[in-house]
Design goal:
Structural Genomics Hypothetical 15.5 Kd Protein In mrcA-pckA Intergenic Region, Chain A; single chain; 2 domains; alpha+beta; Pseudouridine synthase; 17 strands; 6 helices
Length: 310
Amino acid sequence: MKEGEEMLVADQQTEIKLVYQVENDDEGKTVKQVLKTKLDFSSRLLTKLKHEKMVFLNNEYVKYHEEVKEGDYIKVLMKEEPNQFLPQEIPFEVVYEDVDVIVINKRPGIVSHPTKSHPNYTIANAATYYLHKQGLEYRIRFVNRLDMDTSGLLVIAKNPYAHHVLSEQMQADKVEKRYITFVEGVVDKDEETIDAPIYRPTEDSIKRVVDVRGQQSITKYKVLERYHNASMLEVELLTGRTHQIRVHMNHIGHPIIGDTLYGDPEGKLIDRQALHAAFLKFYQPRYRHGVEVRAPLPEDLLQLQNTLKG
């Protein structure tokens, strides 16, 4: 193992082991400081590991205030929970995979996670089947979510450490997320930033609205193509709110084509909202290098594009 390199491995599907070799610039720091600054462990996770006595220095259980020196090994153990979903053979297009992460190109019309109305035949069931074929039983942990009728890039973490780090990146808006969407009407401005708070009127409300009582929500867009009475946009999310793009597009008077909740209730041109998660950039949890992933437009959006051009 190279100096400063972490190693994350599964042991009989029940234990995740993270090993970090202390570097020169860590000299004199405490175990806790190294875990927070070099491995992005949150205070909450550190507290959990402390109670479970899962942190070791050079294979000896150690308390967080212990100082480290160059060449030491910090080992963290995390208990892995069993997979919780029924494996089902469902289309599952992997566009990127490493030891920590699977990124798929999700088809429209399938939910990510089981719900009361969709208990099976979800992406979670498909991911379970995909791993099961490889003899793996990792718990399925989604880093992001896509609406049932939104297609594109969906991130699944293979272990609790990767899920923790990537979720922190998401919450800190450090993940670059770009979408392709087709909206009603000709958008005049070539590009614009929409800064409008999004609010959920009631606890049981599915629909969100722009309201001063809501959370700050920022969306950037630029026009890729203009048609007779529609536009194709590239949209970048600078915050991650539920239905953010759908709400903001409706707010500026250009609802997404096919969006029956925020736009035309009949959805005549396409049977789902014309929204596709096309690009993601995040930092690999373990090695910290940038990962860029792209997903081409699915067939139904290509057909929509051709219709609009005609």
